[in-house]
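Supplementary Methods. Inverse-folding protocol.

Structures were first reduced to a discrete structure-token string of length 417. This string, shown here, constituted the complete conditioning input.
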């Protein structure tokens, strides 16, 4: 996480349904506020958490899950047996950079100039540098706002399409260009440190290029599972409702959708090494995509707990397979498989809550709240709300409600009646 990070989701939509303490913070909280909130929320289960521990392998053996982990302080490994395993590691580990023509040779010729938002920390790193930001989703826009006062003006933002987060925004210190289609390799007759954009324009003497293009799915500790869960890294295979491993539902995934960046095939950049993915891919940053993560996690967890406790049933494996086939037919087998847009994430959460409500002895365990009409209204408008918040400058830190930015659901409902 970088130093000046703020959420791109208002706290009214991002908080867990049973803890609204973020309401005491600015409308789009800082990373410090969210960290404090999560620590407080997890306080009653802290004694169950093993810290400084890396899971290195999860293997199915004689109807039990064998989980091998390594203590990162002592470097000692141990293996335990478990009836069920929930994977909640997210997918912000393996950054993705598109395989643009000439990028590998360019990176070798000009080492250290290409990076990814995963490694960004502070804007001063780009002081007095001619900089290109690639990508215009939440992290790209947030980082560009931080970098533009420091770098050579104007900051260049390369994008394939208009982002709803930036619609209507203009700035004298930024210029928007189409996607980069070629990195021009150094030759005696070619310009220095140059890239070509889709409209044919060439930008030269570039000092830094920061890709804000998301991440691959990667679960190396599950590599023993066959057929493999991960192939290209674009999605996770053999999952029902983005959660249950269809071949053995005692393995479940929480937040396998791609998240709507609560905060605003390259695995390593440095020492002249660069691994890339297909040029026509672009990732947003968990398994459904573009979602409100905390509440979505609540709905998934409620269903998992009730199924694993035997109070709720899954359909047959044939039905689960048909669900995946239908999703592929509708969205394709690539990155869009897990994406949720047009308020689908709220529908998905309400569906999961409704599923959990069908459990036997449903009074046992936590049951999250459904999204309300007011929540749907705010969800549809939160890019505009974020823009209005950012336009307050330093005064945004005093803004705690949407109503202070003239986004008032009650007034809207009255006028619409």
């Amino acid at each position: 996480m970088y130093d000046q990070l703020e959420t791109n989701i208002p706290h009214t939509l991002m908080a867990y349904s049973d803890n609204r303490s973020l309401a005491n913070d600015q409308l789009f909280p800082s990373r410090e506020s969210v960290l404090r909130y999560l620590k407080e929320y997890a306080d009653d289960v802290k004694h169950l958490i093993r810290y400084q521990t890396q899971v290195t392998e999860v293997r199915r053996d004689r109807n039990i899950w064998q989980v091998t982990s390594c203590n990162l302080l002592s470097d000692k490994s141990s293996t335990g047996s478990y009836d069920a395993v929930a994977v909640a590691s997210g997918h912000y580990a393996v950054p993705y950079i598109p395989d643009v023509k000439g990028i590998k040779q360019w990176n070798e010729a000009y080492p250290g100039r290409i990076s990814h938002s995963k490694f960004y920390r502070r804007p001063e790193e780009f002081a007095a540098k001619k900089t290109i930001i690639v990508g215009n989703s939440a992290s790209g826009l947030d980082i560009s706002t931080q970098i533009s006062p420091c770098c050579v003006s104007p900051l260049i933002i390369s994008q394939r399409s208009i982002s709803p987060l930036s619609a209507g925004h203009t700035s004298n210190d930024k210029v928007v260009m189409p996607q980069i289609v070629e990195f021009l390799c150094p030759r005696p007759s070619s310009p220095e440190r140059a890239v070509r954009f889709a409209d044919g324009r060439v930008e030269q003497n570039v000092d830094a290029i920061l890709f804000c293009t998301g991440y691959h799915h990667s679960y190396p500790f599950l590599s023993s599972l066959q057929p493999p869960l991960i192939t290209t890294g674009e999605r996770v295979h053999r999952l029902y409702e983005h959660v249950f491993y269809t071949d053995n539902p005692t393995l479940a995934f929480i937040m396998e959708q791609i998240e709507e960046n609560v905060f605003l095939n390259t695995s390593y950049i440095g020492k002249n090494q660069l691994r890339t993915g297909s040029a026509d891919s672009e990732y947003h940053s968990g398994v459904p995509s573009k979602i409100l993560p905390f509440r979505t996690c609540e709905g998934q967890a409620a269903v998992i707990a009730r199924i694993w406790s035997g109070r709720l049933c899954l359909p047959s494996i044939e039905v689960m397979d048909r669900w995946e086939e239908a999703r592929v037919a509708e969205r394709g087998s690539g990155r869009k498989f897990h994406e949720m847009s047009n308020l689908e994430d709220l529908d998905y959460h309400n569906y999961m809550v409704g599923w959990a409500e069908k459990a036997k002895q449903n009074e046992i365990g936590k049951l999250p709240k459904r999204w309300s009409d007011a929540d749907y209204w705010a969800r549809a408008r939160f890019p505009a709300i974020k823009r209005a918040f950012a336009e307050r400058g330093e005064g945004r830190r005093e803004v705690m409600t949407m109503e202070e930015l003239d986004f008032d659901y009650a007034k809207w409902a009255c006028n619409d009646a």
